Amino acid sequence: MDVFATASALRLPVRLGQLLAAAACAAAAQAHGLPEAPAQPPAATAPSLPLPPLPTTDEDRTVAEIDGERLGSNALALLLRYQRMAQRGADATQLLDEVIEQRLLARHAAARFTRAELFADQRVAFAPEVSAEEKLAGVLRTVYRERLPEELAAEAGADMEKAIIAQPPLTTQQLRDVLGDPARLRVEYALTPEQQQAAATLSVLRYRLPGGVEDSLSLADIYARQNVQGRISLHQLDAAFLAGQAHRRLAELLAVDWAARQAGAAAVAELRRNLLDREYARALAEYYGLSRDIHAASAYQAALRNRIDQAQVGRWYDTHREQFRRLDRVRARHIRLADEAAAARVNAQLHKDGSNFADLARRHSVAPDAAGGGKLGWLARQDKADWFTELVFAQPPGQNGLAVREPAAADAAAHWEIVRVEEQAHGYFPRDSETVRYLAAQTLAEQQARADYEALRRRLRREARVRLAANTVAAKGDRP
């Protein structure tokens, strides 16, 4: 169950509302492939479980410690409230268990692997910190949707004019000096160390949060928050896009600052950590090849596949032989016509049961076997079959096939073929075939990767010391 899905759009006043809701929330949902929470739950499908009360800064008690790291009640209350608002029900005990496990997995991932190993797609995707920050703002906007829009608009202004101290106009030349010539071909869209240093000195927007923090956003800050599409826009010196991204980021900062003053800065920081834990835990699962994307490559599973020998393949084949049934031979007839018009006429005359197929072949086919009623006999499967054999093997038995033009240039003369398969004979891929080895190795590697991941998961829980309230217990290795 995904308790961290990006939050829904909110109806906020004028520009601030549009930035907080449509730009940040919907864009984040699209970017991360996560479902959006509904703006308002329909009355007929109200959550079956009550919403926990909104936390306040003076009630953030410790509910657990993971090897000395504190988990507070306020951050968990925000997550629980969000989950029940967005997903129609959640169990507080299960949520705490998930947060603990994700912390353990994330901590292991960060210590064991480099960022390049965990986030192989970071050259084109969002950095994990950016994903976590966007989801943080989304969760807070959903949890506080009854109060945040009006109160934040009153504090910062509907157009954030009370929060913006200055927004220096940037010229195309200034951007070119830092980002380079937009016409230059690039293998990768990334800043060099020199460009990074220059971008950090170029202020895009200076702001003051209602909570008192005064800071600025640099070009480097905005660049770091982009995926490859956003970086391309910046390298195209799109000043409007840059300004829009700065406003979007300020809208997120305003929402987070407001929520920190309601639930406490520590609770919001912990919530941010929980969401970042999720990014690392997800990346660890993907490293093992346990991704939602079945086409995603896994170096871990590739190494496992390379170690699988023929004996393992053979044992797996023996217990899964039915998966390797294939069509070995077909018995068929055909009618070859000189052109499309003739093919259409003959096709219209064919009986559905094929009872006149042989007769029409003798009368109209231009193939050498016309006198035999277009009889092809049994055709065997071939590793490198010609187009006609492929056509015959693709036909279902007991049906008249559609007229098919032989491969030829559009303006060239070509025959048309009508095929009827009368019988099929099935067999099995040989035990030592490449097909068997590929599928067996792929399945066995995935099974081993899943077992290794589950063993790691159990070990981390077993070795961790988790303090729940006043009791110290070892995390259970057999928990789901």
Automatic annotation (TrEMBL):
Arranged from A to Z, the UniProt key words for this protein are: Isomerase, Rotamase, Signal
One GO term in the molecular function aspect is:
peptidyl-prolyl cis-trans isomerase activity
Reactions performed catalytically = [protein]-peptidylproline (omega=180) = [protein]-peptidylproline (omega=0)
The UniProt entry, under InterPro entries, shows:
PPIase_dom_sf, PPIase_PpiC, PrsA_foldase
List residues of the PpiC domain.
327-423
Its EC number(s):
5.2.1.8
Q: Which SUPFAM superfamilies match?
A: FKBP-like
The positions making up the signal sequence are: 1-31
Q: Which Pfam families match?
A: Rotamase (PF00639)
So what family is this one in? Answer: Belongs to the PpiC/parvulin rotamase family.
Q: What is this protein called?
A: peptidylprolyl isomerase
